[in-house]
Each structure stands twice: as structure tokens, then as C-alpha cells.
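sorry to bug you again but im stuck and you know this stuff better than me. what follows is a protein written twice so to speak, once as letters and once as C-alpha cells for the fold. mainly i need to know what kind of three dimensional shape the backbone takes. anything you notice is useful, everything is just below:
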Amino acid sequence: MPDFIDGSEAVSVHGIINWIILLIIFSVITVIGNYLGYHHPIAGSLVGMGILSLITLIGVWLERELPFNISSILYISIIGIVLAFPGMPTSDFVLHYVSQVELLSIVTVFLAYVGIGMGKSWDEFKALGWRAIIITVLVIAATYYGAAIVAHIVLVATGVPAV
């Protein structure tokens, strides 16, 4: 299977086609999970994923085309915020369809993709040694507990009773 994401890949027809193929596969799997898990209509979810995929494609293209050393995540975030900002003509359309795609549907597919990527480079990961495995586990645990602590503080601050 060819690598669909190559961080060093310049903007080319081949690179854009690879991203489009990846985003189509990602979108179809997400829409299926969104329908099965959350019972959102397939048509609305497809439009929502189409919007998210188009924003992603533009962000990746801007990262590689513009001379600034800025991550595509920043471009994608800015584009999404501008399109969904209240008062923008695109706001109602974007919010309506993107809200039909559950975050957990997207995250599930993304984590499966990351797992496949890890499986492909498992030998390289093992070569880092036992210290890298311990650090990885600690980073994951700290991230989880840190997020739980922040969520707890926000919930208590907004008046939700602590359990």
C-alpha cells in the first residue's frame, strides 16, 4: 500500500490525488460509524464530512504552498472558524452539516489509522528500547489524567456537582 501522507511531498497532482483518496476513505468509514453508532442520516453526515475534508485539503495545500513555516492544523482551524463564524454567509450551512458528524466517529477512524501506522513501524518503535515504552505510557497516562483534571475543574466551576 503506498504512503498516502508524505510530509515532504510538494504540492502536485499526485499528492493532491493521494490526499483526496485518503479523505474519501476516511469520510466513508466515518459516515458508516456515524450512522451505525449515532443514527445520524447518511446524506447529512456525508455532506458534513465533505465540508471537513475540503477544509482539510485546503489547509494541507496552504501549508505546502505558502512560504511560512506554519502547520496545516493552524490553517485548517482558521478556515473552519471563519466558515462557521456567526454572521458569515456559510455559517448556518457549515454548522448544520458538520454538527451531524459526531466527534467520536472521527476519532475512532483516526485512531485506527494511527494504529495501522504504528503497526507498520513497530520494529522501529521496539528499537527505541524499554525506556521509550515507559515514557510513552507515562505521556499517555499524564495526558489522560491532565484532561480529566481540567474537565473536572471546568465542570465544578460551571456548577455541575462533583461525583
Remarks:
- The chain has a mean pLDDT of 86.
- The chain has two domains: 13-120, 128-163.
- The helical segments are 13-38, 42-65, 72-84, 91-98, 103-120, 122-127, 130-157.
- Residues 130-157 form the longest helix (28 residues).
